[in-house]
Amino acid sequence: MFALLLVLACAEDLSQKAPAAKVEAPAPKAEAPAPAPAPSGTGLAIDPARSTISAKGAKITKTHDINFPDFGGTLKVEGEKLVGVEVVVKMAALMADSEKLTGHLKNEDFFSVDTMPESKFVGTVTDGTVTGDLTLHGVTKQLSFPATVSIDAATVSAETEFTINRQDFGVSYPGKPDDLIQDSVVLKVKLVAAR
């Protein structure tokens, strides 16, 4: 009963915070998953100074903000349409809202940054939906999620906020028995490139 009360008193239900990304079912073990198609178009370098990648995680007692400041990649444009995106994130640079949590997220309980130093997303964009392969913690899954795209004479930008289940990527550390960690994690991404 006490455990149930703790769950009900959770800081914030992140599964309700943003739309969930659609995750393709894993392929049978004998088959390799089909990679998402590579985006075509003219590549424009993402400007890290105007772009952000962050996440929000939660346990029973508190939510935590996590920032990923070291990343790069391209937005791919055909005419006046954003058609693709490629992003590589350096996981060792991640920063949480507490120094202790930052260190914990980098170790083998979470992201194992010494052995898996990068996360990567490669996808296509069609009518405000992004579909592509996210490689996180050494696991690749195909995701689909909504994005808001803006293009003008000077810039191309894409913004999205969606949830993923950390268990889908092998990040399964449960937390303390009296302060369990939610499986839902909110990803918030803003990517801007100059034309």
Put the structure in a nutshell.
The chain has 195 residues and is mostly beta strands.
- Sequence of strands across the biggest β-sheet: 1-10-9-8-6-5-2
Q: In terms of per-residue confidence, which ranges show pLDDT below 50 for 5 or more consecutive residues?
A: 1-9, 26-30
Overall strand count: 15
Please tell me the total number of domains: 1
- The geometry reads as globular
* CATH overall fold name: Lipocalin
Let me know the average pLDDT.
87
The CATH class assignment is Mainly Beta
Can you give a write-up of this model?
The protein has 195 residues and is mainly beta. It has one domain: Lipid/polyisoprenoid-binding, YceI-like (Lipocalin), CATH 2.40.128. 8% of the residues lie in helices and 48% in strands. It contains two helices and 15 strands. It has a seven-stranded antiparallel β-sheet with strand order 1-10-9-8-6-5-2, with no helix packed on it. It has a six-stranded antiparallel β-sheet with strand order 7-4-3-15-12-11. Strand 13 and strand 14 form a beta hairpin. It is globular and about 55 Å long. The termini are far apart.
Record the SSE blueprint:
Blueprint: H1 2-8, E1 22-23, E2 42-45, E3 52-58, E4 63-67, E5 71-78, E6 81-90, E7 95-96, H2 99-106, E8 118-126, E9 129-136, E10 139-146, E11 148-151, E12 155-165, E13 175-176, E14 179-180, E15 184-194
Antiparallel strand pairs: 1-10, 2-5, 3-4, 3-15, 4-7, 5-6, 6-8, 8-9, 9-10, 11-12, 12-15, 13-14
